[in-house]
C-alpha cells in the first residue's frame, strides 16, 4: 500500500515537473495601466495643424520615461459610431505612480497647449488590463 502511495506521489511530482518544463503552467498576468485618449478636431484646423498635434503626442514617450508603451491610430471603423472622434492614442503605464508623474509633467502640459486650439472633443478613459 505504501509503495502504491509513494508511486502515486512520484507520478504527481513528475507531471508537475513536466508542465514546468513545457511552460504549460499559468503565470500570474502582469497588469498594465492603459490611458486611452480620443480626439475630435475642429473643422477649422488644417491637416497640417492636426499633424503637429499628433507628432507632439507621439513624441511624449521620448520625453516622459514613465510611459512604458504607446500606440496611435485614426478611426477607420465602418460602423459610424465614432461621434466625431477621429484619433486614438493608447498610453501605457506600469503603475498609478507612473501615470501621476505623467499628467503634470512639463512635456505633457506643453503638449496640451499645442492641442488646445484645435480640440473640438475629447474622451479619456483609464483601465487596468491583464497582459
Automatic annotation (TrEMBL):
<dbReference type="InterPro" id="IPR013097">
    <property type="entry name" value="Dabb"/>
</dbReference>
<comment type="subunit">
    <text>Homodimer.</text>
</comment>
<keyword id="KW-0732">Signal</keyword>
<protein>
    <submittedName>
        <fullName>Stress responsive alpha-beta barrel domain protein Dabb</fullName>
    </submittedName>
</protein>
<dbReference type="InterPro" id="IPR011008">
    <property type="entry name" value="Dimeric_a/b-barrel"/>
</dbReference>
<feature type="signal peptide">
    <location>
        <begin position="1"/>
        <end position="21"/>
    </location>
</feature>
<dbReference type="Pfam" id="PF07876">
    <property type="entry name" value="Dabb"/>
</dbReference>
<feature type="domain" description="Stress-response A/B barrel">
    <location>
        <begin position="33"/>
        <end position="127"/>
    </location>
</feature>
<dbReference type="InterPro" id="IPR044662">
    <property type="entry name" value="HS1/DABB1-like"/>
</dbReference>
